[in-house]
Amino acid sequence: MNINLEVQYFVLFSVLLLVPKILQRFSIPTAITALFLGIITSLTLGWFHDDQLVLMLSRLGITSLFLFAGMEVEIDELRKDAKFLSAHLVQSVLITVAVAFAFSYIFDITLRPALLLSLGIMSPSTGFILNSLKGFDYTDSQIHWIRSKAISAELVAIIMMFFILQTESVESFAVSTGSVVLMILILPLLFKFFLKVIAPFARDSEVNFLVLIALLCGVITTKLGAYYLVGAFIVGMTAGRFRHFIEQDKSKDILIAISFFFTFFVPFYFYYAGMKFPVDILNAKGAIYGAAFLAIFLPLRVITMKASIWFFLKENWQDNIEITFSLLPTFIFGLVMAMILQERFNIPSELITGLLIYTIGSSIIPSIFLKKAPKEAYDSSFVRS
């Protein structure tokens, strides 16, 4: 359609920032609405093809989301729950690897893409889950365990993803690992410099600094052959350590400001993902695979998480349904794995189609079964959810 670009941007911002919020009242996650808006734009209007502004907004969205997720990591809290979490994570890793071997054998694909496919199916998307917490009626205990399990699982999944993607050659593995280690060593020094030299004279600049560094490190890890979320998550974890050196009230304000920031920008990531959605590879066989993945792996994940709670966290058994169903969404990880598999590995298109269908289904189903937050709580958190 031959419409002025400024008008196109106005329509984009109006629709993308309002429509997902409106449909959220009907238990449709905002991320999924944004994804389908991108697909519809690509198929009908043809706007923003290779548009650099939309691309940059999407990068700001994914990096700020994983910056926030990294900052939510409380090492002391994870240490306190280490006995339960370590047992749960060992169980999850073993099942993920076993599923990958099954994929490799059944679909006759090499182990690396099989592992990525398995990660996309078995790994909860922490950013998506944390961003949805306010929409449901949870107790403090339930929130604690949902946060702890989601964050620890994503931390392990990101590490696995990084090593899987870097095992192409010894040289690329050495360069990438060395660069990430260097990043981990330099970031604390950079934060110390900022807090001592810049922050005292640049009022309320912490959020701007964090977002820019997360974007930079996200671009670096992408260039290394990983993905934006790796660098942004590392920045978030580093920043989480330095929040303790800031006044408590200011630390909370920083987290709230970053949550507002990614709430505004993350729909652009899903919209852009929708525009790049591989509609041309969708096929009937892939739809069958997607239905099979949902029928097999959702019950498997429910059973293993329930078993984990029963054996290692029996005192919280009364919360098992809420904790288990809240950890089912795989939206962000599923999309990322689908993109990587499509771009870098020669695997059957029906597997990618099946992963995409499973990803969307696993992220919608929990919102159907979980108890919604009271209207008063929902309204108070409307801008954050």
Describe this structure in words.
The chain is mostly helical. It has a single domain, classed as Na+/H+ antiporter like fold, CATH 1.20.1530.20. The protein contains 17 helices and no strands. The chain has helices at residues 5-23, 30-45, 52-71, 75-80, 82-107, 111-122, 126-132, 140-165, 170-198, 206-223, 228-242, 248-275, 284-312, 320-326, 331-344, 349-369, 375-380. The model is unreliable at 376-385 (pLDDT under 50).
Summarize the structure.
The protein is an all-alpha fold and 385 residues long. The protein has a single domain (5-380), classed as Na+/H+ antiporter like fold (Up-down Bundle), CATH 1.20.1530. It has helices at 5-23, 30-45, 52-71, 75-80, 82-107, 111-122, 126-132, 140-165, 170-198, 206-223, 228-242, 248-275, 284-312, 320-326, 331-344, 349-369, 375-380.
Q: What attributes characterize this protein structure?
A:
single chain; 385 residues; mainly alpha; Na+/H+ antiporter like fold; 78% helix; globular; disordered C terminus
